[in-house]
Automatic annotation (TrEMBL):
Belongs to the methyl-accepting chemotaxis (MCP) protein family. SMART domains: HAMP, MA. It comes from Methylovirgula ligni. This is Methyl-accepting chemotaxis protein. One of its GO terms (molecular function) is transmembrane signaling receptor activity. It is found in: Membrane. The lineage of its organism: Bacteria, Pseudomonadati, Pseudomonadota, Alphaproteobacteria, Hyphomicrobiales. GO terms for cellular component: membrane. CDD domains: MCP_signal.
Length: 636
């Protein structure tokens, strides 16, 4: 693809890539030259350091020679220390120089030669002078060594080796300096050539970008500015060759054509504007009607919700709304109607519950009062039974005494008549006491019957109270069972009393016959003894039975006291329920629901029927015919 057919982004990439390529090549060349310069600098520094080491070694060798001569001249012992220090410094510097010249064989060979010549001088001249010069006897030998030709030759060899080593080190430094200068020249040359090439490439790239991008864009900008001023006669030249400039030129041509089309359409738009104004006026009227209808709907709904929040359930949305709100009005009225019906039922049921709780409270009060009366009656009955029991015990004691009299009748016949008369009186008293006991048993039977009926009525009231009276119903059932057991015990006692009365009557007849036929007393003493024994046994049985009756009555008294306490609790609960019902009625009364039909009261009649059936059932089960209940009890 030719460069003129590239898109602008690719043209820019090519231009900047060319500039960056030149810069990269220049950087590589400079880096190469700098690397060579660094190597040259390192070599020069190493040569300078090597030269410094050699200078120090030569100085140390000179110090060795000077110290030896000074020792010969002065004989001072301090020159030994100076000589040893110079020797050590020479050896250290030579060792360091060898390490630095390890990669330079020629210099390393010169260093080795210099070290060997210095070692030879020390062996032949320096060390002997230091050893012999301290002793006056050997001092002339040391001086002779110093003045000898061998000493001079040895020193000349040392200085010749040092001069050669110095020359090589100087040549090494000079070569490193030339290499450094050449490397720096290459760096400068690479910078100049790279800068010139980068400038030329950048200039050429800028020229191409100007010719292929900036110049066409300025032409298109001028065309678009004229088109923006409304000059639709301007010509749009074809610019670019397959790039964004060509696309922009085509788009500007399209803009021009659109501007021509826009001018044509503006005339038609002016005519359409008038029609739109008329439509807008008509829509404003319709909108105003919609706003008014919406306002009416919102106002009505607000009023309805306000009446509903005030508890008025008789309010209805009577005004008709528009079609979109009419369904809401119907749904609201239906909802309020259903809510009103629900509240009517709730209010009616609340009043019925309140009436029922009032009846329960009244019945509980009456039951409490009658339970207290029954407890008092049972207490009196218990006292009377205690007296009867004492009387029967006395009767048993009398019968025992009569038996003793019969046993002695054989010896005292004259006193038998009086004893018989006493027996007749005692038997009459027993007969009268038996009649009284029979009456008391009837009273106990009636009390048991009334207690049974009371427990039945309490169970009915507990059933009417629902879950709140479930516990009371259980207690009433237990009281009823206890009353039935008391009635059965009373019937058994009554049968025993009837049997005792018959026996007493028979005893009275026998005693009377004995009084009329005293002559038969002696012949019938044994028979009378047996009869009196039976009478004593019957009296003891009567006393035992009365004791059981007394115990049963005491138990009934305790149960009645407990019933009285439970009735008090039931009365308090019924009063609390009545108060809660009143509170519920007050809360429900906050709603206005219209006229309320008074609740019916079928419960009272149903309770009376249940009580009547209970009376029939108890009457059918009893062994003896019970007395009819009083008017007050029937009313309860």
């Amino acid at each position: 693809m030719a460069s003129q057919n590239l898109v602008i982004s690719k043209k820019l990439i090519v231009a900047f890539s060319a500039v960056l390529g030149v810069v990269a090549l220049t950087s590589v060349a400079i880096e190469f030259a700098v690397h060579h310069a660094e190597d040259a600098i390192e070599t020069r520094d190493a040569s300078f350091q090597l030269a410094e080491r050699l200078d120090n070694a030569m100085a140390a060798q000179f110090d060795q020679s000077s110290d030896a001569r000074g020792f010969l001249l002065s004989g001072q012992s301090r020159y030994h220390e100076l000589y040893a220090a110079a020797v050590k410094q020479f050896d250290d510097e030579i060792a360091a120089a060898r390490n630095e010249a390890a990669d330079r064989p020629d210099i390393a060979a010169s260093i080795n030669q210099f070290a060997e010549d210095n070692a030879a001088w020390r062996h032949d001249v320096g060390d002997p002078e230091m050893q012999l010069g301290g002793d006056p006897q050997t001092a002339p030998q040391a001086i002779a060594i110093a003045k000898s030709t061998a000493s001079v030759d040895s020193m000349l060899r040392v200085r010749a080796a040092a001069a050669d080593l110095r020359a090589k080190a100087t040549a090494l430094s000079a070569g490193a300096a030339e290499a450094q200068a050449g490397a720096l020249w290459l760096v400068h040359l690479a910078q100049i050539i790279g800068g010139v090439l980068a400038l030329l490439v950048a200039a050429y790239a800028g020229y191409q970008l100007e010719r292929r991008i900036a110049f066409p864009i300025r032409i298109l900008n001028d065309c678009m500015r004229k088109l923006a001023q409304g000059r639709i006669d301007v010509g749009v030249p074809p610019l670019g060759e397959g790039d964004e400039i060509a696309e922009m030129s085509q788009r500007v041509q399209v803009f021009k054509e659109n501007a021509v089309e826009k001018a044509r359409l503006e005339t038609a738009a002016e005519a359409a504007r008038k029609a739109a104004e008329e439509d807008r006026a008509r829509q404003e009227i319709e909108t105003q009607h919609y706003i008014e209808a919406h306002h009416t709907f919102v106002t009505s709904i607000t009023e309805a919700l306000q009446r509903l929040s005030d508890g008025d359930l008789t309010f209805r949305l009577s005004n008709a709304f528009t079609s979109e709100y009419e369904k809401i009005r119907g749904n609201f009225n239906v909802s309020i109607e259903k809510l009103q019906q629900v509240m009517l039922h709730v209010n009616s049921n609340t009043r019925a519950i309140r009436s029922g709780t009032q009846e329960i409270s009244t019945a509980a009060d009456d039951l409490s009062r009658r339970t207290e009366q029954q407890a008092a009656s049972l207490e009196e009955t218990a006292a009377a039974l205690d007296e009867i029991t004492a009387t029967v015990r006395k009767t048993a004691d009398g019968a025992t005494h009569a038996r003793e009299l019969v046993a002695t009748a054989r010896s005292d016949a004259e006193k038998g008549g009086g004893v018989v008369r006493q027996a007749i009186g005692a038997m009459s008293a027993i007969e009268k006491s038996s009649q009284q006991i029979s009456q008391i048993i009837s009273v106990i039977d009636e009390i048991a019957f009334q207690t049974n009926l009371l427990a039945l009525n309490a169970g009915v009231e507990a059933a009417r109270a629902g879950d709140a009276g479930r516990g009371f119903a259980v207690v009433a059932s237990e009281v009823r069972a206890l009353a039935q057991r008391s009635a059965e015990a009373a019937k058994e006692i009554k049968g025993l009393i009837s049997a005792s009365s018959t026996q007493v009557k028979q005893g009275v007849d026998l005693v009377a016959e004995t009084g009329k036929a005293l002559e038969r007393i002696f012949t019938q003493v044994a028979e009378m003894d047996s009869i009196v024994a039976d009478i004593a046994t019957s009296a003891r049985e009567q006393a035992t039975g009365l004791q059981e009756v007394n115990t049963a009555v005491n138990q009934m008294d305790q149960v009645t006291q407990q019933n009285a306490a439970m009735v008090e609790e039931s009365t308090a609960a019924s009063h609390t329920l009545s108060q809660e019902t009143e509170e519920l009625s007050r809360l429900v009364g906050r709603f206005q629901v219209g006229e309320i039909e008074a609740p019916r009261k079928p419960q009272a009649r149903g309770a009376e029927k249940i009580a009547a059936r209970a009376l029939k059932t108890v009457g059918a089960r009893g062994g003896a015919a019970p007395k009819p209940v009083t008017d007050e009890w029937e009313e309860f």
